[in-house]
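Contributing new records

If you add data, match the layout below exactly. Sequence lines come first and carry their own label; structure lines follow with theirs. Keep one chain per record. Anything else will be rejected by the validation script.
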Amino acid sequence: MHHSVTNPAYVALLLAHVVAAVLGYGALGTTGAYARAARRSADPFSSATLAKFFGPGRPIASRLVLLVPILGGALVLASGRDAASAAYPWIGLVLWLTSAGIAYYLMWPAESTAQDLFANARDRADLRQACLRLEVGAALTSLIFLAALVVMIGQP
């Protein structure tokens, strides 16, 4: 398959890549926004909205970031040798690895902690600490997403 916006399979793959990135990183950013609201609230445990957001379950939408390099790799393969030898896919991969590490090691454990605190412990100090980690992680992953967006559009 050759890189072409007229090739429907390539366009579908590109759209899937973009949608996974936007939804996944958007979910990480949204988590940061809710974490900020919880951290700043005088009584976060009395908020039905916060309790619902930090309810039990896995944050499936944010896990869409895990599809981004798979779909990106498929795009590189579909584009041919020129794309594989260009800098932008490799820069994108490094940016993704960094953001995935932040999500995996900082955000998702902190989100799990916040969920547990809303469900059981209700310790405000622990919640504030978990929410601060979520806010920092969301800010970092958002900045990395923007950097990746610039790289993918500019294709250095």
